[in-house]
Amino acid sequence: MSRVARQVSVIAALAFTSLVHAEDVATPKPKKVLDTIMNPAYIPGEEKHASYWRTSVAATIQEKLNQKLNTNKAKNGIFFIGDGMSLATIMAARTFAGQLEREVGEDNTLSFEKFPVSGLARTYCLDAQVPDSACTATSYLTRVKTKYGTIGLDGNVTRGACSSQLHQGNLVSSIGQWALDAGLDAGLVTTTRVTHASPAGMYAHSSERNWEADSDVPQECLDLGCKDIAYQLVKEKPGNMYKVIMGGGRREFTPNITNAQFKSGGKRLDNLDLTEAWHADKMEKNATHQYVTDRNELMKVFNAEELPEYLLGLFNDDHMAYHLQARDQPTLEEMVEVAIKMLSRNPKGYFLFVEGGRIDHAHHDSLAHLALDETVEYAKAVEKAKSLTSREDTLIVVSSDHAHTMTVAGYPSRGNDILGTVDTALGSDDIPYTTISYANGKGQSVGADGKRIDVTKSQSFLTRSLDYEYPGMVPMDSETHGGGDVAVYALGPWQHLFTASYEQNVVPHLIAYAMCIGNEKDEHCKPKSGGFWSPNSSSNKASSFSFICVAVIVSYLRRLL
Ligand SMILES: [Zn+2]
Asked: Where does Mg(2+) bind (predicted)?
């Protein structure tokens, strides 16, 4: 059935159902939860026939059989992280996106879910069962697991202990650095502050993830010579070599003064304007460069005849706004398009890190509606990257740093509003409950009278308001991360390596292997032509065989003469 025809049927079915419901009895209350009787508004007609499912599985296996092993060297690598994008978030976001299109929802597929290979990564950190974004960033960008709250340092460092962060032996380098070392270009794009934990994993070494500006760093640490994260990005390697840096966090770079130039005031107390320092550094490198602060300026750069060599985009003082509440800021998809256009000029290739960082923030505030929309936006950015590159020479990996406590629970009918209440049953307290809820967080589940809150009496819930906080069981100021494994999806050269279940720090190692960066001296990284006596390439074997044949013939002729 075509999409239009399907939409018409959905609308017709919904209209029919509401007619029936007007005179229908209330949904029967199951005696036991497994006695639930489903009450879907609509089931696509073709799905009722077994042949539909048999045909679709046959197509799936054929697709798999048609896959050829891609062992090309990956010239480019693009690594997407959806911060806090748990498996439940992926399921809910695909359903949400499908329902926005007036589809039933559950069978919708996000862009990266179409990738041919997926695996699972374990996210615990050195000292934490459930990790934060700092130790995981270190894990998935440097291939070294480390301690909670620390970035770019190994487990010998204690959180907040400055002197150990100055000891070179404790520093671990990122895949961004490995790319630069191999002559590739590198860059990063995020929707959070560019100094936030995940992007900081690309360039910083900090025993405390919160040291984003100098005003965050204790005086005794500054005296010892510890540098804040923004400073490291602009003034030190590898950050000052990155061709593209885009996200939020302007306040971490600008001085704590208010005048015409710094209207909103920055956080820095050292009087440095690091955007100026970035400009001065590029002048010194004699490189064209551009600093932009809103979507218009970015689009001007993008549409100009020639792109600058370096681009810094800081689109908000704090994190970038949620997509649904944004004004005058580029989307993640737009930033990815600009970044790929910038980086693909290097004939040797590039490594790009992209973070959809605000899925996590929405979850922390129990704002499920925003978390799902941010996930959909993230999926659009992945689709854009896929459309701008070739799977023959570009490896795209999509994953998450850690899970969250959001669950999709109860037995709602197929097509039931993913942001609504379970349609088939009430709780044993005879009060409705939401399909989405959190194990903890700000959203209250129990009222002052000690009874569970009836969400259907909340206007904010009924209108699906963006600031409606989904209920959590344990009251907390901020909903926490979850400890579940995260999915890893891969497309491109060496995609088959990403299958199965492994530690999270394996991921950058696999990407580096495919790209031949990061000290990789593997066979597939050697130039294809090779020397005459090189033993392994098939063309060389053929040459050796010809050489032996000629030698035998010459010796035979000699004997004859
Ligand atoms: Zn978080």
From this structure: 83, 196, 198, 355
At residue 214, the 3 state secondary structure works out as helix
289 among annotated binding-site residues: no
pTM for the full predicted model: 0.89
Strand order in the sheet with 407-408: 407-408, 436-441, 472-475
**Quick check: helix, strand or coil at residue 515?**
helix
Q: Pairing mode, if any, of strands 117-122 and 500-503?
A: parallel
* DSSP annotation of 166: T
CATH 3.40.190.10 fits 76-406+479-523, yes or no: no
Q: 451: exposed, middle or buried (C-beta count within 10 Å: 0-12, 13-18, 19+)?
A: exposed
The percent of the chain in helix, strand and coil, each rounded to the nearest 5, is 40, 15, 45
Token pair of 427 as six digits? 């709780």
Q: Measured between alpha carbons, how far is 49 from 52 in angstroms, rounded to an integer?
A: 6
Ligand 1 centre to CA of 84 (Å) is: 6
133 CA → ligand 1 middle, Å: 6
Return the bridge partners of 437, or none: 407
- Detail the DSSP E strand segments found in 129-208: 185-193
**pLDDT by 10-residue block (mean), the chain, 561 residues:** 43 40 48 77 93 95 95 97 98 97 92 98 98 98 98 97 94 98 98 98 98 98 97 98 98 87 81 97 98 98 96 97 97 98 98 98 98 98 98 98 98 96 94 98 95 96 97 97 98 98 98 91 71 39 45 53 46
360 labeled part of a ligand binding site: yes
What does the CA dihedral 379, 380, 382, 385 come to, rounded to 10 degrees? 180
Domain ranges for the chain, please list them. Answer: 3-66+408-475, 76-406+479-523, 529-560
| The token pair that represents 264 in the structure block | 């909103």
Tokens of 422: 């379970």
* Residue 218 C-alpha from the chain's centroid: 32
